[in-house]
């Protein structure tokens, strides 16, 4: 009985030691890989992947892989053949999620269509061509509330237009008039705006391009997303 107890205790001790040893190994891999790729590219984390001997490397919100010796940096996708699941794609989606509750509606233009039950957040630059294309497509949606967060990242003129839009008597109408009808905003631009807050939020969450859409589950869709894909996503949230 004493021998059995000793063996069980040894197994438990071994299992408890796996975590720290693995963490130490991952830290060593991260350190070694960081030396090789240089200080200009910051590695956020290194962790075990589903494949033995292959480690996930996080650089910004991008997923790469490396080997135990940090000799190779692998760019590609891991697909589980049994299920067809794209492990990398799912991981990337999870990393790019935000908490919907962290958005501040007070800092956004707001458009309500129909009953407004479905919700969508869009980060947009008024001089972004793809944003204009998306805005035209969004006009086809019904029963939706769209929050548009202006982030003037393209030029000084983007900042000026964003201020003029926000400071107008009807910001949402002024925005749509410009994005769809080409009626340039005019008037004052010296009111208090949330543009700095929106830009800071975008930087924190790695929103580097416009348009970028977010749904209530926190999932991120970059670019001028097709209406069919937006409707499909809304359907999956029901």
Automatic annotation (TrEMBL):
Q: Which PROSITE patterns match?
A: THIOREDOXIN_1
Q: Name all Thioredoxin-like fold domain ranges.
A: 112-232
Provide a GO CC annotation, any one: periplasmic space
Is this entry keyworded Signal? yes
- Kindly state which keywords UniProt assigns to this record, in alphabetical order: Disulfide bond, Periplasm, Redox-active center, Signal
Where would one find the signal peptide in this protein? Answer: 1-23
Q: Which Pfam families match?
A: DsbC_N, Thioredoxin_2
Tell me where it resides.
Periplasm
Residue ranges spanning the membrane: these are none
Domain (Disulphide bond isomerase DsbC/G N-terminal) spans 22-89
User: What's the chief localization of this chain?
Assistant: periplasm
Sum up the protein's function in the record's words.
Required for disulfide bond formation in some periplasmic proteins. Acts by transferring its disulfide bond to other proteins and is reduced in the process.
Q: Would you identify the family this protein belongs to, as annotated? A: Belongs to the thioredoxin family. DsbC subfamily.
Name of the protein in its database record? Thiol:disulfide interchange protein
What organism does the record attribute this protein to?
Answer: Polynucleobacter brandtiae
């Amino acid at each position: 009985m004493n021998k059995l107890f000793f063996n069980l205790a040894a197994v438990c001790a071994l299992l408890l030691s796996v975590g720290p040893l693995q963490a130490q190994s991952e830290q060593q891999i991260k350190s070694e890989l960081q030396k090789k790729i240089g200080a200009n590219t910051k590695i956020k984390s290194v962790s075990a992947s589903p494949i033995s001997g292959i480690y996930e490397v996080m650089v910004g919100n991008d997923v790469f892989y490396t080997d135990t010796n940090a000799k190779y940096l692998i760019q590609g996708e891991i697909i589980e053949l049994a299920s067809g699941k794209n492990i990398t794609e799912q991981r990337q989606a999870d990393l790019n999620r935000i908490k919907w509750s962290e958005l501040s509606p007070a800092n956004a233009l707001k458009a309500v269509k129909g009953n407004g039950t479905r919700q969508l957040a869009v980060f947009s630059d008024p001089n972004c061509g793809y944003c204009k294309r998306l805005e035209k497509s969004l006009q086809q949606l019904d029963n939706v509330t769209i929050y548009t967060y202006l982030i003037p990242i393209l030029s000084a003129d983007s900042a000026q237009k964003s201020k003029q839009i926000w400071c107008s008597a009807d910001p949402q109408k002024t925005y749509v008039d410009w994005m769809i009808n080409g009626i340039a905003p005019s008037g004052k631009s010296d009111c208090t705006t949330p543009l700095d807050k929106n830009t800071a939020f975008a930087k924190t969450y790695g929103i580097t391009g416009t348009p970028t859409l977010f749904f209530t589950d926190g999932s991120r869709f970059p670019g001028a997303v097709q209406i069919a894909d937006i409707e499909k996503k809304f359907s999956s949230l029901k």
